Amino acid sequence: SNTRELAVKFCIIFLLLISPSDSASWKTQKYHKPCKQFVLYYHDILYSGNDSVNATSAAVTIVTKLGNFNFGMLVVFDDPMTKDTHLLSHPVVRAHGFYFYDMKIKYDAWFAYTSVFNSSEHKGTLNKMGADTMSEKTRDLSIVGGTGNFFMVRGIATFQTDAFQGDNYFRLKMDIKLFEC
User: Fold this and answer.
1) How far apart, in whole angstroms, are the C-alpha atoms of residue 34 and residue 177?
2) pLDDT per residue as tens digits for the range 20-60
């Protein structure tokens, strides 16, 4: 009984010490302006059995027909990223990673990849991951860290589908905003 009474008193004191404003501060925290922002275009050419020279990605799983949305297909990529929309422009970044289709009722994917910079402007990497809900006009992926010029950064990469040619090619416009530089 004495132990129970002590535990109740401890809980009451603990609850009184927790300020409602402290626990809700994350909700009211103002977003800061990005410390760095730039736009890149991500180009993906999926290998379809006869274009190994131009392909930048390949499906590494065999997908059984579970609807019409490539559910379960895992794609590994080494994709070029350019400063403009032209696929043949000089890539300023290479994106290395994977995505997989994770919905049976619509096209949605989950990405995890590293953008590798090696130019006179930037050196290092940015690591991104998150859901690509393709039915949305814009989607945000988390930038969860980096190396070199991007050491320990945090931010958001906002995707927007810029071009789409069936299963073989798509281009994403990526608005990259870094908040912890």
Assistant:
1) 6
2) 544 444 444 456 788 999 999 999 999 877 777 889 999 88
Tell me the pLDDT tens digit for each residue of 50-92. 777 889 999 888 666 566 777 888 899 999 999 999 999 999 9
What is the residue range of 46's domain?
26-180
Q: Look up the CATH number of the domain holding residue 158.
A: 2.40.480.10
- Number of structural domains, the chain? 1
Give the alpha-carbon dihedral of 46, 144, 136, 27, to 10 degrees.
170
pTM above 0.85? no
- By the 10 Å C-beta count (0-12 exposed, 13-18 middle, 19+ buried), 89 is classed as middle
- Rounded Cα distance, 66 and 51, in Å: 26
